[in-house]
Design brief:
By secondary structure, the protein is of the alpha+beta class. The protein has helices at residues 7-18, 53-61, 65-68, 114-127, 173-177, 238-245, 249-259, 308-325, 333-362, 366-381, 383-394, and strands at residues 2-3, 23-27, 48-52, 73-74, 77-83, 93-98, 109-113, 131-135, 139-144, 149-153, 158-161, 164-166, 182-198, 205-210, 216-220, 228-237, 267-270, 274-283, 287-288, 291-293, 299-300.
């Protein structure tokens, strides 16, 4: 039983259905039609998701990739710009360029609109005879005995399974129903997400600009209607983010133009803006008896370095291997303990790494800015360190 029909839940369902298991997916949101592209507030979700190379390969093996990649844009280079023009350390911009050809690859992966991702996954799940979709009904609580786990739903129905996968996000009802707490830190930032059209082509380059308040990330999108377009994730101090998002559109564009360091030329238009708080969160336990937490239910990261969704896919990959080795019982204690032992070290490492990177990326402390600049210069000038940084980010 999979709780949550976002990308993590649906890929989980398709993974275990392909392995021959009967899977039921429960979600209180109707994921059919327009609802698939809306967030919890009913506002259209403007985000895109970077699918790094290991994720793409996994989805290809599951025969998922071809269904979601129609509007995917290759990520052929990553450029980090240290915008020091406004501080006392240096009066110019410095670039660090990461090129996948140094690893023998054509690209780092692809950028996929969340709408395309969800609609494609729902279509595949609906067509799979091993998957039952129950939308518009949520989980109320979890009950277990020695051989099974039972999901008590909000409509009073009870569903029996051998394993419950909690893939229901940062506010996981699965986690809450089991009394599993979280370690949580609110960064004081808000992530603004929107699309822009711009004068210059992006050349399939993803750009992260480090300046005051947080990183500004410009992610290339596939060209439509002869317009050059990019997805933007702009992390800012919450007070500044609120002020900017509610500002006059021309003033917002002018501010964005300045902060973009003219990377894409003149910014021509900007879509509606969606926002969400930036939080680092870790569940106190990622497994329980016949229950496993995946994705944001287990670990919630800032939207930097493309680690969030790709870590969720790694959860699914490792869990499926551990479960298949247990043969008949997917919820066997040995399988879940093996999953925990394989995943926890990487989860901790990436949580600390991404949290630290985010802190360094927006810190206005001159000493930390100097440390950040020194680190980027070291990566730019040392091929060995740069290659290993790229390998860590991808794997």
């Amino acid at each position: 039983m999979v709780i949550g029909a976002g990308p993590t839940g649906l890929v989980s369902a398709l993974t275990f259905a392909k392995a021959g298991y009967d899977v039921v997916v429960i979600d209180p949101v109707d994921r059919v039609g327009n609802a698939s592209s809306e967030n919890s507030n009913g506002v259209q979700d403007r985000r895109t998701t970077a699918h790094l190379t290991p994720t793409v390969k996994f989805l290809e093996e599951l025969e998922i990739w071809n269904e979601i990649c129609q509007n995917a844009c290759a990520l052929e280079r990553l450029v980090i710009i240290e915008d020091t023009s406004q501080n006392l350390i240096s009066n110019r911009q410095r670039k660090t360029v990461f090129d996948p050809s140094e690893l023998g690859s054509q690209n780092f992966g692809y950028n996929v609109p969340i709408r395309d991702n969800l609609e494609g996954l729902v279509k595949l799940a609906k067509a799979n005879s091993n998957i039952t979709l129950v939308f518009g009904i949520g989980l109320q609580r979890v009950v277990r005995d020695n051989k099974s786990v039972f999901g008590i739903l909000t409509d009073g129905a009870t569903i029996e399974a051998k394993l419950i996968i909690g893939a229901d996000g940062g506010n996981s009802q699965v986690r809450k129903s089991l009394g599993i707490g979280v370690k949580k830190k609110y960064t004081g930032q808000t992530a603004l997400s929107f699309h822009i059209t711009h004068e210059k082509p992006h050349f399939n380059i993803s750009t992260e600009i480090y300046s005051d308040g947080g990183p500004l990330t410009l992610v290339p999108m596939r060209r439509k209607n002869k317009e050059h377009g990019s997805a933007v994730v702009w992390m800012q101090d919450t007070e500044k983010a609120s002020f900017m998002a509610n500002n006059d559109s021309d003033l917002f564009l002018n501010h964005l133009q300045e902060k973009s360091c003219d990377t894409l030329g003149k910014i021509l238009s900007c879509s509606a803006i969606s926002s969400r708080p930036v939080t680092v969160q870790l569940a106190n336990r990622i497994i329980d008896r016949r229950v496993v937490l995946l994705g944001e239910a287990a670990h919630l990261l800032p939207p930097i370095g493309a680690q969030g969704y790709n870590s969720s896919i790694k959860d699914i990959k490792v869990l499926s291997h551990a479960v298949l080795e247990s043969q008949n019982d997917p919820g066997a204690s040995a399988a879940l303990k093996k999953y925990r032992s394989l995943r926890l070290p990487d989860i901790y490492l990436r949580t600390v790494g991404v949290g630290t990177l985010n802190f360094l990326a927006w810190s206005e402390n001159p000493l930390l800015q100097r440390f950040r600049l020194t680190g980027l210069n070291l990566l730019q000038n040392n091929a060995f360190l740069k290659k290993n940084a790229m390998r860590f980010g991808l794997n």
